[in-house]
Here is the input.
Amino acid sequence: MSRILLHVGAPKCGSSALQTALSQAGRLVTPQGEKLVYTAARPLLGRRWLPLTGARLRVTAARLPHGYAAWPGAQDTGDMAASFAALDRVRNTGAAGLLPVVSQEGWIDQSAQFAAALPHWFEPGAEVIVHANARPPLEWINAAWWQWGVWGRLPFDRWLDRGLAQGGLSYRLGSALQDWAALPGVRLDLDLGGD
Here is the structure.
C-alpha cells in the first residue's frame, strides 16, 4: 500500500518553522517505530523534478536564504503536471514502516486539483494523511501583518482595509480543510496550535 503525509499549510500558521525543523532532521522515528522521511523537490529543466532527502536536503536547505526546503508550489512553477508526477513517485516509496512527508503551505486550497490529477490516491486501500496547522483569525491577521503588511509602510488599519477590499486576506481555513476531509481515504490531522 502506498502512503504519503501531505503538510498543506496554512500560510502564517507555522509552516516555515515546521519546514525548517523537517529540513534539518531528515528522518524521524515515531514512538511506534514508524520512519518519517521528509522530501522536498526542486524543478529542473525539461519537466523533471529532483527529489531531495537526507544529507542532500539538509545541505540544500542550509544554502537557501530562509534555511529550509519545501515542495515548490504553483506560484514557483507553471508545470503542476510534473509536480504531481514527482509527488506520485514519492508516494510510491511509502510502505509499511516508512512514511514520506512533503510540505507546501499553498496546498491548503488545492484539494480539488489533487483529486483531479491523482484520483488513484483516493481509492480504497490508499493512505493519504493531510496535516494542517491553523491559527485563530486574530492571531493569523497579526502574523500576516508582520510578514506582509509591515513592509508596505502602511498603518495597520489601512493595510487591513486594502487587503480586505482586494480579497488578499482571505481566511477560509475551515472550509478548505472540509474539502480535504471530504476526499475518500484522507485522514485529516489538524494542529490548532494549542498548549
Remarks:
- The CA atoms of residues 3 and 94 lie 5 Å apart.
